[in-house]
Design a protein that fits this description.
Length: 202
Amino acid sequence: MKLYYSPGACSMAPHIVAREAGIAVDLVRVDIPNKKTEDGADFWKINAKGYVPALQLDDGTVLTEVGVICQYLADQKPESGLVPGFGTMERYEQMSALNFAATEIHKQIGALFNPKMTPEMKEVQLGTIERRFNVLEQLLQDKQYVTGSGFTAADAYLFTVLNWANVHKIDLGKWPNMKAYMARVGDRPKVRETLKAEGLIK
């Protein structure tokens, strides 16, 4: 399998899941602005959506979208505990957490990367982010991870997009549960391996 990624982008979530599950993937770095892979291939031909992540399976099938790729990888190693069993309420709770990470955290913080965002727009966006963070702070009350005591694929996604708070100078000190959560996930050996592999830490 090949995982098309860009360092620190949302593609880091399936990268973390693969390492946590013990699944070997070939990492292929993508120059997102120019839509080129590190070996010069046209990324548009790999993923017509033009963004990472993309997971190319051994039969040539290409999966896209963070939550789907995370679940797919976790399902390959159910014994890893990264995703609950099909049909269980725990499975739906994790799907809820994945969707919250995608639509309410990823998209809200991700909007701040828009270079054309005016100061007024940024102020409005930061207000939305604060409201989402307030919800997440409550969700993490008395929990080690977003769905309970065990690390799942949803945590890989949530950690990845919350990590962008550093880029945008959003101080998590106002949300102690979130701050502790980020430190907890960031200390996981496989998460640190991922950060090192992507050149984000030494």
